[in-house]
Write a structure and sequence with these properties.
Layout (H helix, E strand, L loop, with lengths): L2 H14 L28 E2 L8 E2 L1 H7 L9 H12 L5 H12 L17 H7 L5
Helix pairs in contact: 1-4, 1-5
Bound molecules: zinc ion (2 copies).
Length: about 130
């Protein structure tokens, strides 16, 4: 995907889901990839507890609870879990699209959702993707 297309997609995503731009939580706070615990959903929250320092998805963060964060970061962990809890249920799609838009993930038809299901500006940007 050329940089201009990625830029359009990033802007469309941010208009629809401003939460993607957070620094300490969300797709910018973790390395692009699947959850370190379930290996199914994308990573959403960085963890630092006894369970290891990798990023986990929303459900796994909830399951880990306080164990996901070290003693010094319990407050951050609780805030991160509360933040994740209020995201729309389609957060995994939006997180994957964000990584496509930033160039961290290559567009993969199996990961990129059906544009018809997405808000018009995001769908329009997606339709410019190759393939
Ligand atoms: Zn998970
Ligand atoms: Zn910590």
């Amino acid at each position: 995907m050329d940089p201009a297309t990625r830029h359009d997609l990033r802007r469309a995503l941010l208009e629809h889901a401003p939460w993607l731009a957070e620094d300490d939580v969300g797709p910018r706070a973790v390395e692009a990839g699947r959850c370190a615990a379930c290996e199914q959903l994308p990573r959403l929250l960085p963890t630092c507890g006894p369970s290891g320092g990798a990023g986990v998805c929303r459900g796994c963060a909830e399951t880990l609870g306080e164990d996901g964060w070290c003693a010094g970061h319990q407050e951050e962990g609780a805030l991160a879990r509360a933040w994740a809890a209020q995201l729309p249920d389609r957060w995994p799609e939006l997180v994957v699209l964000w990584w496509v838009a930033t160039g961290e993930l290559r567009p993969d038809p199996s990961l990129v959702p059906d544009p018809d299901d997405l808000p018009a500006p995001v769908a329009a940007a997606l339709r410019q993707l190759p393939g």
